[in-house]
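REQUEST
  id: r-88c1
  op: predict_structure
  target: Actin
  payload:
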Amino acid sequence: MSDDVAAVDVDEVATIVMDNGSGMFKAGFAGEDAPRAMFPSIVASHRNQGVMAGMGDLNFVGDAAQSKRCVLPLKYPIEHGIVTNWDDMEMIWHHTFENELRVEPTELPVLLTEVTLNPKKNREKMVEIMFEKFKIPATYVAIQAVLALYTSESYTGIVLDSGDGVTCATPIYEGYALPNATQRLDFAGRDLTDFLIRLLNDERSGCKFSSSADRQIVCEIKERENLCYVALDFEQEKASAASSSSLKMFYELPDGQVITVGNERFRCPEALFQPSFMCVESAGIHEIVYDSIENCDNDIQKELYANIVLSGGSTMFPGIAERMQKEITALAPSTMEVKIFAPPEREFLVWIGGSILASLSTFQQMCISKAEYDESGPPIVHRKCF
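RESPONSE
  id: r-88c1
  status: 200
  body:
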């Protein structure tokens, strides 16, 4: 957050909303339209070996860590949507309270998001750290897909959430996720970046992307507006690219070198529909949505097909909604009407849903209070947050 943004007035804000993404961390205040802080969910640490006496260990979070990528290894505390390094995760939360939002955590409730099918021990660890380390007064843990659905003004539907580390198709009925029908893929945006690196390296012998700094450059190429896109018909698009140069675009690298990006533009995101391109044996995103719906009771399938919500940064490719419409319509029974919803703000749709939920008059009653935590301990999360 820039220095000219004033610290928040705690009297005016009810709840902090934190969306714990594998690639991007989003934080802000309930009732607002967008997160105040968005930064990479990464940590870089320099352990002092005595060479620089008195300096101690140096820790960098988010953009500061990204800027050190050439000299320090980057660590991702959230892998495939699940926290794997709690010390680094705690560092991200501390950075958010102190540097991004500039609030005292002891004064405000916190809404935390979690991936579908988050392990029970992880849910408990989240609330334990919040109460024990940050001394917050209350918290609530919400499933990311359910929050994304809130933005569609409906409580029944299916959310395809694909971010940086994980892709999930989560059916939701009357506000409750249906875990037994949820489909999960452990590939998403980070894997697409790796795939694009491979494609670019294969196509040009004079330009090799290999370092972590190069990886960030390729990630920026992938996310450049209107560069990568999903083809409505992949084979037809491939034939067009082979016979014409009209699909080629130029991209200037930080060192001034200009590269040409051709069929990689649509070959990269095609892996979402054909994971075999990345040597992954898995169904495509359209197939996991279909399988998830078909695993639900027949009585609710019509409602699910009619409200398929796309969420997460890896659903931001132009053309993805039209392709999903085409593919799922082909798979679904002919009697079903298929509707795809792809809001323009879907990159932080989960956070917006959290902002909506935490603004409800009933939210304070939903939360785990400090007194309840002290009485029951971390397992209270399973009774109050579901």
